[in-house]
Give the backbone structure.
Amino acid sequence: HLKGMVLCFQESILEKLPALTSSFDHKVEEFIGSPLYSVMIISYEMLLRSLDQIQAIEFNLLICDEGHRLKNSSIKTTTALTSLSCERRIILTGTPIQNDLQEFYALIEFVNPGILGSLSTYRKIYEEPIVRSREPSATKEEKELGEKRAAELTRLTGLFILRRTQEIINKFLPPKKESIIFCRPTALQLELYQKLLSSRVIRSCLQGRLENSPHLICIGALKKLCNHPCLLFKAIKEKNCDPVSDEHDESSLYEGLVDVFPQDYTSDTFSETDSGKLQVLVKLLAAIQELNSSERVVLVSNYTQTLNILQETCKRYGYSYTRLDGHTPVSQRQQIVDTFNSKFSPAFIFLLSSKAGGVGLNLVGASHLILYDIDWNPATDIQAMARVWRDGQKHTVYIYRLLTTGSIEEKIYQRQISKQDLSGAVVDLSKTSEHIHFSIEELRNLFTLHEDSTCVTHDLLECDCMGKKDHQSEGDSEVPLLISSKCTQIPP
């Protein structure tokens, strides 16, 4: 997949199977012309460039790492791999289903063609009943049918799927301490949040007109506000707010919001005091550095604009940093990672886009990882956390997730940890999809600000500990709940 991963596979193969030789630094022509090479290790990109030559080779086994890249049978990579002369195929992946069950079909069809029938048959027998059973309006009969078909699909594919969960290697890794820090929103965030919730766009969403509903735009605006008001301010300035705009128009969502900001407010001169999470982050970074000056931190966000804010914050406080996001050239990424992991690295913080560095990266040079924002799909967060808690890590790992109290971020987190109707169906990570569907009642819940609650998630535990108790291993909560407005309860 990545050059670093190709090298990693080469080293692992030579370590475990020294009798084998591999072609890595050599051209495809040398592999074809020499009997010395038993294994070809190649990136997907190089495969496409050299496909004509590689198609002439008869392979005995094809192994595809990060196999979820093959989730679409019509893309060039899948078509190219299918064209190779090789009957034995293996896919390695930690996320076999990222969005929908058709992706799962594509992977199964690649390794075991025909086992699930045609795509139309598969959709009728499995996908449609399973998806329908998970809809908020599903009847009891539809839910029962969906569970039955999910169980059938699991049994059938279980004949050739070998599942290995994180628990298998956990005993070989150093301890991991994961904490959720609930951060109080600032006065500016609260006022803007309330203004957004009273907009005619959100009112339209809650009146049942869900067809072509802009609820995803509304959710995006609330998530920007949770990260920092300046992100919302920038979006407002990019839209010309027309007072007579259509109620579904994005500009009408921002109507009147600019008046809430101070008159001299600009997105370029943002203040940490405007964001509860940024205030907590600043104090958290200071606490980590004070604890041990040799400690290093991976700071993760799903959004490039948020990374820009975090980068500027690093500059303001004199923190040395490096950054990897979607704009970082692929040819430079491994060098950036290797430099950061070196014990001589001057960087205190590694700014990481979860989309660009969600898989493949080894950042064991850091023992602290901070997730600044949360994703609907728990797989995204899990993959980000695995950048530091993995083979090669020598120190106790500390994971911190920052959530804005009472906001949509708490709802997303609760959605992650709540028990799904089809929990564990097919594969565990199929529970959440980026193609999110909501009932009216769910939207009302999402578009509600619980400003009087110290922590809604903690309230759901019905505990009277005032946020001072460690709830690890209790009920569905897998991590301590830390409630902070001034970052006074950061774990050591």
Notes: The first strand starts at residue 22 and ends at 23.
